[in-house]
Amino acid sequence: MSASTAAQAMAAAASRLRAAGVPDPARDARLLLAHAASVDAARVTLIAPEEIAPEIAERFENLVALRAVRVPVSQLVGARAFYGRDFKITRDVLDPRPETETLVELALSEPFDRVLDLGVGSGAILVTLLAERPDARGLGVDISESACLQASANAVLHGVAARAQILLSDWFEAVEGRFDLIAANPPYLAAEEMQDVAPELSLHEPQIALTDGGDGLSAYREIADVAPRYLTPNGRVLVEIGWQQGTAVCDIFTQAGWGGVTLAEDLDGRPRVVCADKPA
Q1: Whole-number Å distance between alpha carbons of 86 and 79
Q2: Tag placement on the chain: N or C end, fewer CB within 10 Å?
């Protein structure tokens, strides 16, 4: 990149990313320059008029080249902000999304002492809930060993490791005990939807966390069927859903005998979380 100042480098990078179809090129250019220069993203404007050092320019160039082929920013900088905390991210786990904060808000709206996170991934849900509830304990399970390691690392990072157990498990397979809250952001994309998702997802995020390879509803059927055995008498389940799955997932829980089945919307007004009380 031949630009001599940070501002010129960002402008050139944003133009390159825009041409590559990246959705928010200016923001990404700013975040990547901050990472390359080892400064906080909020301080990038302060260094904008300054000449960019050759080693920083080279790092920035490499990052921009990778972003242009749609490697997610979180994987390039190794972290993603979620509910006010930074979580370490690799390509082995799903990138935490703002929509999932809706599930966290709902979980925190009622008391719980023990929480189970099915498909723990990066640990964003479990670690956040334990960090927000210092007296709670939790279990996170995932079928991916790499995800379990990442969740464990994030539990240590945010000081909740002593209250968080992470297990390798195919859904409920290794789970024991009962929980006041069971939360999950399962793979909900149908196989046919995968051809239409952004390259960031289809090429760089774990497929097993995105789709069940079928109709996108198999995880909800499993949870609706098995979860009652692992809930306390007043326990509840919260599951994130695809925005067009509200009716289908509510029907799965209602037909399985769950009570108080409700649908919550995210900040964009899209159906995002199904809440259900343990069947009587």
Answers
A1: 6
A2: C
Residues 41 and 34: beta-carbon distance below 8 Å: yes
Task: Tell me the pLDDT tens digit for each residue of 42-81.
Answer: 888 888 899 999 999 999 999 999 999 999 999 999 999 9
Q: DSSP labels for 156-168? A: HHTT-GGGEEEEE
Cα–Cα distance, 139 to 151 (Å, whole number): 11
Amino acid letter, residue 254: T
Q: In a 3-state reduction of DSSP, which class is residue 249?
A: helix
DSSP 195: G
Strand partners for 51: 5
Three-state secondary structure string covering 103-127: HHHHHHCCCCCEEEEECCCCCHHHH
> For the chain, give me the number of helices (H) and strands (E)?
11, 9
Average pLDDT for residues 159-167, to the nearest whole number? Answer: 98
Query: How far is Cα 43 from Cα 149, in angstroms, rounded to an integer?
Result: 32
Per residue in 87-132, pLDDT (tens digit) is 999 999 999 999 999 999 999 999 999 999 999 999 999 999 999 9
The alpha carbon dihedral of 254, 233, 169, 89 has a sign of: positive
